[in-house]
């Protein structure tokens, strides 16, 4: 199993090395075609990995698929594991879309140069891998020991969905957040950027740049979104390998899509509603897992995948129609 985990992490590091060291060696803002091309490449890689998951769990490579999944009380064969991986990938992609908009807001308010935004996102991905990996490892261990935690997570997701639907946007600017105030009080922060550097020396003293402030803000927001998205994927599977790999591929794809989606998402006026409905759907599934599994059987994850896609499609369609009505 260690070799399997090491191989996957090595694959991710190779993708990131190619991204920063080859395709984006010189600081620049990727064009929309470049961003969409790299995102498409990561999506294709995710589909190929789903095929690898099928073979790995069918043949039980490194012991994969030999333990009972706490969600449906079944062992994950190749077909079931690959469907769970793809479902988790789509759910994580959906719930992280709002994060793209928040990242764009951070860059805009802190006036991060376009040429340096890719560097911040690159290091943000590495931080997200470590943070989410830790959360997933802890979560799977707890759920394996205390199955009732799935119901607690389900109730939390339903509560979060209701709060998203009812709560108004406070409109707090990123530079007014507690983290920025803490950094300004306890560290020397330069007013200007210094290329792609996160730290500089002045008169023998260490200073941090606004680029590091932007990176820490993005990591803190990713932590907040992970609190919602990781419990959501536990409605699909508690297999740590499937949870982690689907999370990682979704993060890689969305960070690549940032330069192509950030401004388009501002027109997705029903994004928050769509995400709330997805969270509510996943939460209800966790609360009624026994009844849902008895009703749908092995097709439960395919149904979940279809319903998430339907919610996103309906939200996008409603947003387009609303924009057209306003333009008349």
Question: How would you characterize this protein structure?
Answer:
The chain has helices at 2-23, 32-58, 78-110, 114-145, 149-166, 178-186, 210-233, 240-265, 271-287, 289-296, 300-327, and strands spanning 68-69, 74-75, 199-202, 205-208. It has 328 residues and is mostly helical. The protein has one domain. Strands 1-2 form a two-stranded antiparallel ribbon. A two-stranded antiparallel ribbon has the order 3-4. A hairpin with a 2-residue loop joins strand 3 and strand 4 (205-208). The radius of gyration is 21 Å and the shape is globular. The model has no long low-confidence stretch (mean pLDDT 87).
Features:
mainly alpha, two-stranded antiparallel sheet, 74% helix
Q: What shape does the CA trace take? A: globular
Strand % is under 5%
Radius of gyration: 21 Å
Number of strands: 4
Helix-and-strand structural type: mainly alpha
Distinct helical segment count: 11
Strand count, sense and barrel status of the largest sheet are: 2 strands, antiparallel
Contiguous uncertain segments of 5+ residues = none
Provide the spatial order of strands within the biggest beta sheet.
1-2
